[in-house]
Design brief:
Layout lengths: L1 H10 L21 E3 L10 H5 L5 E4 L2 E5 L8 H5 L5 E3 L14 E2 L4 E2 L6 H7 L3 E7 L5 H7 L13 E3 L8 E5 L4 H13 L5 E5 L1 H5 L21 E3 L6 H11 L7 E2 L3
Parallel strand pairs: 7-8, 7-9, 9-10, 10-11
Antiparallel strand pairs: 1-4, 2-3, 3-5, 6-12
């Protein structure tokens, strides 16, 4: 017993200070992209051709990047001959509306909080049922790690539960394969109203690398209404946590500007 207590004291406090302090992220972390219009050559579409999920589009107004489709693979950044696009370390990516994930790389409308009635219901105690709708387990792993001592999701009153009948909403990962469509619908139907739906990762938002495959439904909103979109492949645990806290009104509403 004394050895256990001594070891615990030596380990110290391991929970990250976020959101009181900004998180410390690894150097190779890829967050929100920034596009420099002055560096973009009109006739050049190298970045568009390099994107494996057609997340980049270029027209007379310039470049637009769909973060819902983006795999954050940085193929576009590496292909661009002028350095017009690059990924920052900004982990704030979650939005309420799917359309808000389409950005010119300068301003991203981050997720607004739930309405006052919903915040009274879910703000201090949010129970979620996770559904892996055909995912590769990358997003699932980054969701599960939120339960560890490092992130300690429970300190915010957020908890994953085993039954949808005990849940306030569902958190979905994966592109929603044909084999998981009915299971997802039944899980959603089993959650008592009012309820919220959170799509985590490129697959759950738009199909990810499997987009337009005949056996997937290109994301959760093809089956159920989605209240929060958290992009990434997979999104960092801090990105997921940031989105959840914004939804519950624990963080100020702001807009991301280029770093």
């Amino acid at each position: 017993m004394f050895n256990l207590l001594r070891t615990r004291l030596r380990q110290g406090h391991r929970t990250i200070p976020y959101p009181a302090e900004a998180p410390v992220l690894p150097d190779r972390f890829r967050g929100a992209p920034v596009i420099s219009g002055t560096k973009c050559v009109d006739e050049c579409r190298v970045c568009v051709a390099a994107c494996p999920t057609d997340a980049i589009e270029k027209d007379a107004l310039g470049l637009r990047l769909d973060l819902g489709r983006c795999l954050f693979c940085a193929e576009c950044e590496q292909a661009c001959p002028t350095g017009a696009i690059h990924f920052t370390q900004d982990y704030r990516l979650a939005t309420r509306a799917r359309a808000d994930l389409v950005t010119d790389g300068n301003v991203l409308r981050l997720a607004d909080a739930l309405d006052a009635t919903s915040r009274r219901l879910f703000g201090r105690s949010l129970k979620l049922r996770q559904v892996s709708a055909g995912g590769c387990n990358a997003c699932e792993a980054d969701v599960n790690v939120l339960n560890t001592i490092v992130f300690d999701l429970g300190r915010f009153g957020i908890q994953f539960v085993a039954s949808p009948r005990h849940a306030d909403g569902i958190l979905i990962t994966g592109p929603v394969t044909q084999n998981m469509r009915l299971a997802l619908q039944k899980t959603y139907d089993a959650v008592p109203a009012p309820k919220i739906v959170i799509a985590v990762g490129a697959c759950a938002i738009a199909g990810g690398p499997f987009v337009d495959h005949p056996e997937v439904h290109n994301g959760a909103d093809a089956v159920v209404p989605v209240d929060l979109h958290i992009p990434g492949c997979p999104p960092h645990p801090v990105t997921i946590l940031d989105g959840l806290l914004r939804l519950l009104g624990r963080l100020p509403n702001d807009r991301r500007h280029p770093l």
